[in-house]
Amino acid sequence: MSDPFIIAPTVHAIVANSGGKTSGFNLYEHLKANGWSLPSNAACLFNNTGWEHELTLDFLAEQERRWQVPILMLEFTRRPATAGELKSR
């Protein structure tokens, strides 16, 4: 049986991370299965809504520091639609 955490070189992969303990464990297992780093075709992603507790962000920073893995943070920014965007609908 193959390891489900191994990321094949032929696919692009995202390891989702919510900043919680289970997500941290999931990232750890992916790192362990892939030689303690994510392959170049994979990234760890955290969706920052702006409502996260400070300890969640601290935990993500600790994962980055301890495991030497970048965690990409997508952040939502609300803005009004431009006139050009409204016309194209």
> Treating each run of at least 4 consecutive H or I residues as one helix, how many helices?
3
What's the pLDDT, averaged over the residues? 94
* Terminal residue distance: 50 Å
| Weakly predicted, low-confidence segments | none
- With strands numbered from the N-terminus, the spatial order across the biggest sheet is 1-2-3
Which oligomeric state applies? single chain
Number of strands: 3
What fraction of the residues are assigned to beta strands by DSSP?
A: 15-25%
In short:
With 89 residues, the protein is an alpha/beta fold. It is built from 3 helices and 3 strands.
How would you describe this structure to a colleague?
It is a single chain. The protein is an alpha/beta fold. It has a three-stranded parallel sheet with strand order 1-2-3. Strand 1, helix 1 and strand 2 form a beta-alpha-beta unit. The radius of gyration is 17 Å and the shape is flat. The protein starts with 12 loop residues before the first strand and ends with a helix.
